[in-house]
Each structure stands twice: as structure tokens, then as C-alpha cells.
Amino acid sequence: MSSLLPCYVLLDLETTGATPTQDRITEIGLIRYENGIEVGRWNTLINPEVSIPPFIQRLTGITPEMVSTAPVFSEIREILLDWLNDAVLCAHNVRFDYSFLKNEFKRIGISFQKKLLCTVKLSRKLYPQHPSHSLDAIIERFNLMCEQRHRAMGDTETMAAFIHAAIQELGESAVQETAQLLLKQQAIPTGLDYLQIHAIPDTCGVYLFYGDSALLYVGKSISLRARVLSHFQSDHRSAREMRIAQEVRRIEYQITSGELGALLLESQLIKDHQPIHNRQLRREKQLCAWQVSTDPNRWPLVTLVNESDMKLDVGNVFGTFRTKRQALQLLNKLADEHGLCDKALGLEKGSGVCFSRQLKRCRGVCDGSEPAEIHYVRLLAALSHYKILSWPFKGRIGIKEYNPYNHKAEVHVFDQWCYLGSVQNDRELEEISVNPHFDRDTYRYLLKFLNKKNVNVILLG
Asked: Which of 222, 235, 301, 337 is 20 to 30 Å from the Cα of 103, by its Cα?
């Protein structure tokens, strides 16, 4: 009798695809062990309640006809929970199977948590000299028999045969010690150093995930280590989260003086390096905004300006928009909703009254029925939700942050909502950029921080 762990369940799933939040389980196969003895095995097809792609049908041999009369997941939940009770869940690439189980249980209102052991990682630790640790590679390495490859019980039996072969070859204590070590390090992806990750400080900063040859992801946190670990302890609610966890090979981090410093650095790094998995904060093409005339009688009342031409000190800028089309769509929508004149806004050319007036949508500023001043006030009210606020200071300001972890103090300098840089002394302040560049993300961050209590704002003039 030999044992991997006191109590564990070897499990394999077949699914309709690779995305846990969209695809579903079609088959479950498991074997339960207690104190080194197999105490039972269970195998069932599952009706996924979604279509099975032809490629998956060819790979697994599981067809819609086979699952049409099978139970749905909610009908087997209690049986499955009984099999997994008090056991470590073991699978080949266990995060894949675990994510599917988490999502299936979540759909029926159950929070599912288990200790995990990955047999891919077990193989890597026990046999580092081998380049591949897929089930096919393990079958070839040990000359194992697998009668039903890509079926749940067939692949589960292959994992059992691998563990038995490893114990026979390396000894029970060596395999057990490796399994226990992996349980302690289960949140750390293969290829990353457990001790180095736990050496990351729990303080403000930015972290960078690298793959084999590219920057994958940039994130920020006020607790770096906890945030980094959360990527690998997550339930992988999306395919993107799963890919990040699977692809990361190296982690770097930079400590900042505080939360605002982390936000600014994260935004800058994402815009400069365009990481593969960052969707937000990427550098936009030239943004645009509507600049409203200060004269109610001067048509067109609004002019589309690029961000480099925005006169933020005037206080009549509304936006910003990624494209001219997006800006025009909003203006047309507001004109329809608020009875504004298309000719006054510059949306329609030519002489005479606007077409909307003929349809009785415009209230008549174009034919003199409505005073220009009244129309102008309604235009400002319609655009008010999109207004970029006037700069509330006479000149530049600094926001000071201090990080007690490394005693780093910085002053982040802003003017007209634009980030000019961060300085640590008067000399650096004198050399700072005087060419502000408006950035929508910086505007949002600064608004948030200026509304906080106990923010250390310095008037720089």
C-alpha cells in the first residue's frame, strides 16, 4: 500500500470548450483515495445545456445524443460534493478543472472551495529533466496504457497510473514530500519562484507580469504581494485571468510613494508598453472634445478640438471621445433629446431653418422662435454630464505622498489636470516639464484624490 496524500480525489472533466464562464462540463470522472487505498470511483456524463462544437465531439467522442438524457450539473451536485468531501482535489492542470467546477457551482448559488494539487506540477518537480509533462508525454515516458484518451475516466486512470509509477521509481516519501510542498505553494504558477514572490513587499506599487518573451500585464496595488498572489488564487472567472496565470514566467515590481503614485505609474507603463492582457488605460489615439463658444449668438456653438488644442483654462470643454464619430453620435443624441438646433450646433449646413425644426423637434432658435440665450443654456445643461471641470487652482499644485516602508517621499505635480511628473526636491521641481499633456485617466485619478480627506495638496503657483 502506498499513498500520495491522506485523502485525495483524482478528477478529470470533459468540457464544451476552454472558457469556464461560457463553456460547460460534459463528463466527470474521479477516483477517491483514503490512506493510500482506492475507496471508490465515479463517472457520469453531464448535459451541458449548450451545444458541443464539432471539434470537441471529434476530440472526446462525446456527442449531443450521448448527453441529451444525462443529468444536468445541478442534479449531480450533492453526489459530487460527497465524493470531494474532506479531500484534496488533484487533476492534470488542476486550475482548468477547478475553474469549471467553481463556475458550475456558482451558477446554482454554491460557493465551492477546495485544496488543489496539480499533477502537471508534480511531474515537473519529480522529473525536471523531461521537457514535456502533458498526459501524452507521461503515457509515453512510463509506457502506460490509456484505453480512452480524452474521456474523463480514461484520463483519471492515467493520472493514477502515473502516481503509482512515480512512487515505484522514486519512493513513496519522495513523492509525498513533493506533493506536500506543492500544496503549500499551490497558488504559485509553474516556473515562478515561491520564495521570490513571497519576498515581494506588501506596500504600494506596480507589478509587471512577463511571459516567455513579452510583457503580459501591468497592475497596481496598495498591497503588492497580496495582489500578486490573488492572481493565482483567483477562481479564474474569465479566460483572460486563466491565460495570465498560465503564461506568466517572471514578475517585476516597483515600489511607489503611495496610491496615487501607483496609479500614475501603472497608467504610464501600460501606455508606453501596451501589455498583451491590459485592456484599459492603453494609449489612445488623439482624443477629441467639444469646445463650446462663449457667445450664444456665434454659430456653430460647438467646435470639435483635439486634446492637444483643448483650452482647459476656459472651462467650456466637454468630452473626451476616442473618435470624431463617437463625438458626433453623442451630440446628435443630445440634440434629439433636448430639442437643440442642428444648425446652431453645426450638425447641418445651409440656410433657413433646420430639418429638426420642420419636424418640431428643434424649439426654433434657427427661426427666431427661441432666444439664443435660452437655447445656449439648454445646450450647456445637456452637455453638463460630460463637462471637464475648470482647473480650481491659480497654477501648479503638488500632491505629496510618503511610503513608510522605504521612506520614499514624492510630490506629484499637476497643472490644468495634466500630470507633469513627480519630484523629490526643489531642484527636480525646477527642471520639471512645462508642456502639459491632457490624459483622461489622469483627470479621473486627480478628481478622485482631490475629493479625499487628508490629501496633502501643495500650491506651487
From this structure: 222
C-alpha span between 345 and 340 (Å, rounded): 8
Q: Round to whole Å and give the CA distance between 352 and 67.
A: 68
Cβ count near 170 (within 10 Å): 13
Q: What is the DSSP letter of 204?
A: S
Q: Where are the domains of the chain?
A: 7-184, 194-273, 288-388, 397-459
What pLDDT sits at residue 230? 80
Q: Report yes or no: 103 and 21 within 8 Å, Cβ to Cβ.
A: yes
Give the SS3 label for residue 446: helix
Phi, psi of 204 (to 5 degrees): -65, 145
CATH code for the domain defined by 7-184: 3.30.420.10
| pLDDT tens-digit series, residues 266-309 | 999 999 999 999 887 666 667 889 999 999 999 999 999 887 67
Fold exhibited by the domain 194-273: GIY-YIG endonuclease (3.40.1440)
Instruction: State the cell numbers at 177.
Output: 514530500
Tell me the pLDDT of the chain averaged across its residues: 90
Question: Given a cut of 70, is residue 123 above it in pLDDT?
Answer: yes
Q: What is the pLDDT of residue 203?
A: 94
Residue 189 binned pLDDT confidence (cut-offs 50, 70, 90): low
The three grid cell numbers given for residue 17, joined into one nine-digit string: 470548450
Residue 387: partners with Cβ closer than 8 Å, 6 or more residues away: 317, 318
Instruction: Name the β-bridge partners of 261.
Output: none
What was the pLDDT predicted at 313? 60
DSSP H helices, 118-202, are 119-126, 135-142, 152-170, 172-184, 194-198
Please give the DSSP secondary-structure letter assigned to residue 307.
Answer: G
User: What's the confidence (pLDDT) of residue 190?
Assistant: 63
| Single pTM value for the model | 0.61
DSSP classification of residue 234: S
Rounded to whole angstroms, how far apart are CA atoms 336 and 319?
18
Residue 422, phi then psi, degrees to nearest 5: -120, 140
pLDDT(1) > 60: no
